């Protein structure tokens, strides 16, 4: 009707279907004879333009439409030719806008108030809506104490400042327009994190999966994870989340104003979409009860010193998620938590002081996610096997873990999908532990072959210490196909023991070959020479590989995707080469002389070599040229490689390479960089004296990369 009025069509008021359709026809006829620019503000859903009388665009018509929206998905749905993201205002423009809103008579000339006002503006994060709303609330404020109060209120919540009747409800419109309760609940989860904090996408998704927020047909955890990452993308499209600053790809953050809105919604919202309680030292000190505790689904108690169970915990019997990461507490406190929180689905005890997991853990019948990473637990109670809904068990870097009763894991055979024992101290070749005086003692210990009985296991992350265990993994279709992270450490074995098998035992042929050459001439014989050859198509789900601690002279050959007959073994029960293989770490290899990467590695993002004292070459490209064998390689780290001389015989061809980090590689005198070979390279980290001594095949190349160099000790090179 507004458009019709501008064209002099004098449409009558009314919403009857036939009337609206006729007005659309009349409007279309009038606009078809004109050139026009149509401006539409605050569009929330796709508009069928023809239904409201807007004729087709394009061609020679000189007709344009520009619209604003808070949802990137609306731009996609309406097939926008060009999307323009309106960034937050920079500090100067934010201050200029704030000054206009506060008014010319505001006492900003007072140095004390000026300083406080600038801090207030900084809290607005460049968001015009926040700046104008808070600016209006501060008009006529002449006393510095009022500005101090405003700053404190913004630290707590914009609601306390005043003006929330405009700012927060208007931001809440975006919240209300999210697709479903799952997205709204996920956003509120993010608000638990501290202000101005980068949040790991992977951590968020794992928590959401544990809560059951990302339910999928069939219940496969990989499908739920994909759904979680898509949900994050939708929240970003809706401008509810931003890319992280420290790592834009792997982290996200919330704008302060959006976080304030989420906190406001948590306090005043109705229904059950993820109410939470974030406890800090002040609340613990006063022992506040939580109002409406029956609605609380999540409790955040990270980075605290707990001397007893907070009284408020008893008021939250329906809690799904309890986050105690990096918190110090007495051992008896967990029993209190388990007593009052029978509905727990997610329990994160990582990086805490816990040394003994109480047997009462078995009473948490709803638990789906349990994280004990970086704790000092030495044994896992067999009662863990009673958690019949547990899907994810994370025991990463549990260095002191030495007893895992078989029943603690085999009891989860029908539910467990993720078992993370990366860098755990557990000895997979240990025998029965006879300690009847210890809770859980006297039980037969878990063996690697027991994991084959976990019918739903999809994600295994494991560190082993002998190649006999590697043979077990590669000889089991179940284990080799679900292994995501694999670490082979050989630190505590004498030279070569990890590659020599008893009674003629050998790894599956063509999977991981080893050759040994002995000279029987006594003590003067040369060292054993061995070849480790790993074909990634035998580990189709592998994402991360770490090899460490071999002492005898060794050559490592890792075979990616290739159709060369010498390396291709798909006819021998091999799977397509691992498309998910992202990280290769080789460290503390005293005898490593050559590292050969054969074929292409379509997903490899990071290569790291550390303390391999004899390695001389690393071939990051072949001599034939052509397409890169590492099309997604982003980071190369080379540290303490005294004999390394070359990383490629020709100019690197890595279109995604961003960072090269080098330290204590005195023989590496040449970086094979061409003028256009690594267009995304932004950082070369190393020692200044190493950079100054580098030889360049073309003198015109070095100036191009001077701006990328970062002195490891002194910061940016100028």
UniProtKB/TrEMBL annotation:
GO terms for molecular function: ADP binding; ATP binding. Residues 2-104 form the NB-ARC domain. InterPro entries: Apaf_helical (IPR042197), LRR_dom_sf (IPR032675), LRR_R13L4/SHOC2-like (IPR055414), NB-ARC (IPR002182), P-loop_NTPase (IPR027417), Plant_NBS-LRR (IPR050905), WH-like_DNA-bd_sf (IPR036388), WHD_DRP (IPR058922). Gene3D superfamilies: Helical domain of apoptotic protease-activating factors, P-loop containing nucleotide triphosphate hydrolases, Ribonuclease Inhibitor, Winged helix-like DNA-binding domain superfamily/Winged helix DNA-binding domain. The keyword NAD does not apply. Keywords: ATP-binding, Nucleotide-binding, Plant defense, Repeat. Residues 341-433 form the Disease resistance R13L4/SHOC-2-like LRR domain. GO terms for biological process: defense response to bacterium; innate immune response-activating signaling pathway; plant-type hypersensitive response. Signal peptide: none annotated. Residues 192-262 form the Disease resistance protein winged helix domain. Belongs to the disease resistance NB-LRR family. This is Disease resistance protein RPS2. It comes from Anthurium amnicola.
